[in-house]
Design brief:
Largest sheet: 5 strands, mixed
Strand order of the largest sheet: 2-1-3-4-5
Strand content: 5-15%
Number of domains: 2
Shape: globular
CATH superfamily of the largest domain: Carbonic anhydrase
CATH class of the largest domain: Alpha Beta
Number of helices: 10
Length: 208
């Protein structure tokens, strides 16, 4: 892509927005009050606004390799803290996607250099679900299932945080685990049973 063309595209986008609504940017410049925190993958093929049909200001977004919620990652922990405690979001979405390069890299017995500590978190997901995953003979299906299980485990990691535990009690915040099917464009709700997860882990991870 020609970088200079981005500025031309930006001018066209501004003109289109002002044509539809002359006050668009005045409204956009006001304080944000999104109801959704979206934690997704950095993959260039996944564009959150387009696939969900939302407008700027509707959703607070954090993206990293393989949509991870790692307690040692100050970036994602800061985003969660701000979105839950300050913005008072009502929903938190963890969204993975099929054909995820991070998940695929974690499935390989290969030294990935600086990525090793990050990918180890995904390998830990594999270890937790090794019996199920090793029973899947088709590599593509196993790959897709690890994507799904990774979303589930990142939702669990989210529930382990004090901010989310307090919001679950005080405001009944809702957590969602989704997968974007890059082959069809559909968003798949994993329909994770969070009541069961909470029951199973709160004895160990309860903070509030």
């Amino acid at each position: 892509m020609d970088i200079e063309s981005i500025f031309e595209n930006n001018k066209k986008w501004i003109a289109n927005k002002l044509n539809d609504n002359p006050d668009y940017f005045k409204t956009l410049a006001k304080d944000q009050s999104p109801e959704i925190l979206f934690i997704g993958c950095s993959d260039s093929r996944v564009t959150t606004g387009d696939l969900m049909g939302i407008e700027p200001g509707d959703m607070f977004v954090h993206r990293n390799i393989a949509n991870m919620v790692s307690n040692t990652d100050l970036s994602v922990m800061s985003v969660i803290n701000y979105a839950v405690n300050q913005l008072k979001v009502k929903h938190v979405i963890i969204c993975g996607h099929y054909n995820c390069g991070g998940v695929k890299a974690a499935m390989q017995a290969k030294d990935m250099g600086i990525l090793n500590p990050w990918l180890r978190n995904i390998r830990d997901v594999y270890r937790l679900h090794k019996e199920e995953l090793n029973s899947i003979k088709d590599e593509e299906q196993k790959y897709n299932r690890l994507v799904e299980l990774n979303v589930q485990e990142q939702c669990v990691n989210l529930i382990k945080t004090a901010e989310v535990q307090k919001a679950l009690i005080d405001r009944h915040i809702t957590i969602h685990g989704w997968v974007f099917d890059i082959h069809t464009g559909h968003i798949i709700d994993m329909k994770i049973d969070f009541n069961k997860i909470l029951k199973d882990i709160m004895e160990i991870y309860r903070l509030v």
